[in-house]
């Protein structure tokens, strides 16, 4: 992209991205600076407008601004799952990139077939590696420039709940589709010895999802429905400032809702067992957590009875598995609700630094539900990746010991200073990706005590 100054170029690129999304016709359109002082932007079709320049740098980056315009054709009957997604990507990093890495769990769980990949309308040789679609840009995308990456795939939902299948399945009459939309990420192994979340996604300012189904379905997503066709088989959802777009669907989902402040909390369910208790647990947890950590910035919070498996967080939505025991319900709902702040608003690399979201969410959940307990595994390090903990001790170390370490910081520095620091951390880091030390430092900075030396160093040798 020509242009001697970076800021106008970025502005134009951002404007171009908005125009592409707003047109709902994500053809190959890219920002083109008209020179110094240019204030107009004229979209023109075809690869001639591409900002991609010849060359290669062997570099990708998470520091991009990406919006998504995606169509999902979902057959409830056959479990066919066909995706056509256009990501409008502006390179916000300091240097050029020559590939993007798009994450989709369907590559590991849905027998994914990639049928097309285009960069600004030109076919490129994308390939699948583990759960990543690696898309070469066919040249370099300069800093500040924008490109449109389109991928199409077909996949099939599973029917089981075992292993990780519950993330992408249809069971108990409910479709679970987690981390399926090809999303800007970095290459991250899917296999792990425990139930850690092998994902890292950046926040998108705008996602438009059209879902076309073989029959009328009630669909819960991370966005708001903005359109439904007369026959009920085409629905469109939009979301802003989310790091994923999870889809849950059933033909006979029922709903019940309540309000906490300005937020509507809506429970989607097929089995009415625990329905009142689930919504009650969600609204209590939401109210307590919001009072401590600051306002939830979206109009709705969806609590969804999922096909089964585990409780799971998504932006603006949580999954509570079908058949969850009533004794575990209050804690589980609080844990997943706390992820709206730690993961949803303040993101992290969940695979490589799971402490940042899991320990914080579990501490908050156990604090507001009064369910703090001690760990059933030997005291150990908290700075490891999900790939380095055993199935038996991952939860006991990262969640329980991690949460108890945060609680030790609270007791040492005093509740008032602690909650003020945590609230400020959410406010400052919202929309970004933090590291474990970002959280630890935020607490340490709010007290004259040396929490690093006193509490954190022994558990985080990689950082202290
Ligand atoms: Zn969690």
Write up this protein.
The protein is of the alpha+beta class. It has helices spanning 6-23, 106-109, 275-293, 326-338, 355-369, 394-413, 415-429, 436-444, 451-456, and strands spanning 64-74, 80-91, 97-103, 113-119, 122-123, 127-129, 132-141, 146-156, 168-171, 174-177, 183-184, 207-213, 218-221, 224-228, 234-239, 247-250, 254-260, 263-269, 300-306, 312-314, 317-321, 347-348, 433-434. Helix content is 26%, strand content 28%. The strands form 5 sheets. It has an 8-stranded mixed β-sheet with strand order 5-4-8-2-1-12-15-14. A 5-stranded mixed β-sheet has the order 17-18-19-21-20, with helices on one face. It has a 4-stranded antiparallel β-sheet with strand order 6-7-3-11, with no helix packed on it. Strand 4 (113-119) and strand 5 form a beta hairpin. Helix 4 (326-338) crosses helix 5. It starts with 5 loop residues before the first helix and ends in an 8-residue tail after the last helix. Bound molecules: zinc ion. Zinc ion is lined by residues 313, 335, 339, 358, 361. The site of zinc ion (ZN) has 5 residues, from helix 5.
Radius of gyration: 22 Å
Shape: globular
Q: Kindly estimate the percentage of residues that lie in beta strands according to DSSP.
A: 25-35%
Structural class: alpha+beta
Taken together, the total number of domains comes to 3
The low-pLDDT segments are 1-47
Helicity range: 25-40%
Largest beta-sheet details: 8 strands, mixed
CATH class assignment of the largest domain: Mainly Beta
Secondary-structure arrangement, i.e. CATH architecture of the largest domain: Sandwich
What is the residue-mean pLDDT, rounded to a whole number?
92
Distance between the termini: 42 Å
Strands of the largest sheet, in order across it?
5-4-8-2-1-12-15-14
